[in-house]
Amino acid sequence: MSSDTASGRNDVADWWRTSIIDMEPGRIAFRGTEIQDLIGKVSFPEMIWRMTRTDIPTPGQTRLLEAALVAAVDHGPQAPSIATARMAVTCGLPLNNAMASAVNTLGDVHGGAGEQAVELYAHVESYDGPVSAALDAWIAARGKIIPGFGHRFHKPVDPRAPRLLALVEEARQQGACDGCHAAIATAIEAELADRKGTPVPMNIDGATAVIFAELGFAAPLARGIFCLSRSVGILAHAWEQMQQGGRNKGPTPPAYRWTYDGD
Predict the structure, then answer these.
(1) N or C: where does the chain have the smaller number of CB atoms within 10 Å of the terminal CB?
(2) Using one digit for the tens of pLDDT, what is the confidence trace for 84-93?
(3) Which residues contact residue 192 at a Cβ distance below 8 angstroms, ignoring those fewer than 6 apart?
């Protein structure tokens, strides 16, 4: 084989580079572990960790990640992502297209607060000053909306957040995390209540962000993992709508009309 041919083949082989999977006929390995040694032995949350990280989680870390995944699966058809999935099915789309349409609505406003809350906790952690000053600096740079706190529907408390924080505390006591970010989130919650004169409790995004931060996930992965979690609800609603039937269902019943404010 000529050197030019060998070089060309290397150019092709090196076009994509990955440390995630090694595969050849009759063999599949993820991060150095054969697939047959993972199947039936590793949970799906642990597999998510192994695929997105280079380390292997402890059982306590896996349980905490699983709790975050379970907590965020669904929030009903009033959530844009869920409504999109159901509407897509009534337009004749199969499940995969409905799911893709729905996941694509998970952006900075709907679905992005968890990532932003992880960034907020990191900001407060690294800030040279009290939580109040760190929060002022955040607001000056990012705006008045504080990600992960308050909820337009669940008042006075998002029922998911206290349970998740309790599990974080259990994990801290068992050595699965150090509780640093849970303490930061609680301090932010207290500061917001002091400023508003009324409780501004942590919501699902703030609580799952505590878990992702405690487990050492990078902020963008918080959104990615939320998408994995919410995909379960999206699939369930798309499938349910498929069983119910219906054609071309829009966001409101046909008898209702939008407000026209033109001339």
Answers:
(1) C
(2) 999 999 999 9
(3) 135, 146, 149, 150, 200
